[in-house]
Write a structure and sequence with these properties.
The protein is built from two helices and two strands; from the N terminus they run ββαα. The protein starts with 29 loop residues before the first strand and ends in a 6-residue tail after the last helix.
């Protein structure tokens, strides 16, 4: 792999890829990331759940426990439930609390 400046880079380097989405100005949402190299900035607005519903039943406890596990350093957490029980809704609330990129 060859960088724009002509130097080579390993294809397995762990540096984030620079990207630009749109040309709108950044307003108070700049985040700096440093991974084995120069600091990169990106503007990602905070994730917010927009819904007419509130967590109910076992969901508030699950949100609390999943959030605590992720913030406690667990690399992977799993939420199990039957079809239609609100797993995606529950995880959306966890993501809203932790504000980290997440693979669902």
């Amino acid at each position: 792999m060859v960088r724009r400046n002509g130097s080579s880079a390993s294809p397995r380097s762990r540096r984030p890829v620079r990207s630009s989405i749109g040309s709108s100005p950044r307003v108070g949402c700049e985040r700096r990331v440093r991974v084995a190299g120069p600091a990169y900035t990106s503007c990602v607005p905070p994730f917010r759940v927009v819904s007419d519903f509130e967590p109910a039943g076992d969901q508030p406890l699950a949100i609390d426990q999943l959030t605590a596990a992720v913030q406690g350093g667990e690399p992977h957490v799993t939420l199990l439930g039957a079809t239609g029980t609100g797993k995606t809704f529950t995880i959306a609330h966890v993501i809203e609390r932790i504000q980290r990129p997440t693979l669902v």
